[in-house]
Design a protein that fits this description.
This is Coiled-coil-helix-coiled-coil-helix domain-containing protein 7. Belongs to the CHCHD7 family. InterPro entries: COX23, Cys_alpha_HP_mot_SF. Its main location: mitochondrion. Keywords: Disulfide bond, Mitochondrion. The protein is an all-alpha fold. The chain has one domain. It is built from three helices and no strands. α1 runs antiparallel to α2. The radius of gyration is 14 Å and the shape is elongated.
Length: 68
């Protein structure tokens, strides 16, 4: 997940000063919420697996302008 890597890199680059990485944390949180909502909806709809495949995720991201 790009957001995870970016937030970790920010922490490494900024000597673990969390206040320097707030924007990365917000993007990470929004990304997690976005995909969590997708998984919840897929469960409700009876779609397996809960998390879309890599191909499906790519299509979803292309279809949504700014998901997070």
């Amino acid at each position: 997940m790009l957001e995870t890597d970016a937030s970790r890199k920010c922490m490494d680059d900024n000597n673990y000063k969390k206040d320097m990485c707030t924007n990365y944390f917000i993007k990470y949180r929004n990304c997690r919420r976005f995909w969590q909502n997708i998984m919840v909806q897929r469960r409700r709809d009876g779609v397996k697996p809960d998390m879309p495949t890599a191909e499906e995720r790519e299509k979803i991201l292309k279809s949504v302008e700014m998901p997070y």
